[in-house]
């Protein structure tokens, strides 16, 4: 790696405003090590409790967790709690290990962190262009530029980063542009034909996949089954029709692909918390132009 590799470790010791619930950013850093003197032991550190996320940019390090040892190469991360039974270090005979890291206090974010770690594992791979890693780079750049100067900004970055980890863990390919081609084609077909009855058999035949494989890869990428996805598309169109037309509920149900008004009302209530009639009237609620669904 070039000698002009940007390094820097920035610590944050802000007073937390009382009685506000704030996330606590402890440190963020970018470094490159070539010396076997680089070694951290989670049982002997005295700066905990902390949560560590360390992401390898280039080279390789070793991560021991209990009796297991992981070689952490480019694109891999370490997720560890401090104190804890782990060690991470630069190996004998290694060339270099360059990485980004972030240390956070566990208050408020520990359940989210634990869920992400349960899904991803202790040494997960994350693409360099994934949202958590792009955000981690941004946080380091902000720190390097001296722009994290108070607790509110630091807290927002911690919460956003852990939320992005949870999002990536739950839906690793959550952005449509990153979906597998067959999933993207399936979604485009559902978008264009939501008014029709679309079975999983029909969709899988069009794409040349088994319906079980299609269901698995679609749900993994999108975070919803094809049936749930088309319901979401239909309800988004129903909201527009309720706001912009005088069509009856039965007629709207027919236009968006439901066989009858009663089922439409059931799905609409489940997804929005209101009946189509009360949503249209706006009684006791805010007036929305659009509702976004997960």
UniProtKB/TrEMBL annotation:
Cross-referenced Pfam families: AraC_binding, HTH_18
Entry keywords, A to Z: Activator, DNA-binding, Transcription, Transcription regulation
InterPro entries, alphabetized: AraC-bd, AraC_XylS_family_regulators, Homeodomain-like_sf, HTH-like, HTH_AraC, HTH_AraC-typ_CS, Tscrpt_reg_AraC-type_HTH
PROSITE patterns listed in its UniProt record: HTH_ARAC_FAMILY_1 (PS00041), HTH_ARAC_FAMILY_2 (PS01124)
HTH araC/xylS-type domain: residues covered: 184-282
PANTHER family in the cross-refs: HTH-TYPE TRANSCRIPTIONAL ACTIVATOR RHAS-RELATED
Protein name listed in UniProt: AraC family transcriptional regulator
